[in-house]
Amino acid sequence: MKALTDISAECHQSIKYECNYAPLELNGVSYSWWNDKGGKAQYFWTDGSN
């Protein structure tokens, strides 16, 4: 996978989130994240801003 991402201009992955009333963030506390290809936790989900 790393070799594929290294030669790709863009990579996208989708998730399906079907939890009623379960926030990704509440009162400034993040309860979910994803790890980038370097293993660093990322907390944004929609607009690309941290």
Which parts are unreliable, with pLDDT below 50 for 5 consecutive residues or more? none
Q: What is the count of helical runs? A: 1
The average pLDDT value, as a whole number, equals 81
- In angstroms, what is the radius of gyration? 13 Å
Query: What is the N-to-C order of secondary-structure elements (H for helix, E for strand)?
Result: HEEEE
Number of individual domains: 1
Structural class: alpha+beta
- Strand tally: 4
Proportion of residues in extended strands: 15-25%
The portion of residues assigned to helices is 10-25%
Shape: elongated
- End-to-end distance, in Å? 25 Å
Q: Biggest sheet: strands side by side, in what order? A: 1-2
Largest sheet: 2 strands, antiparallel
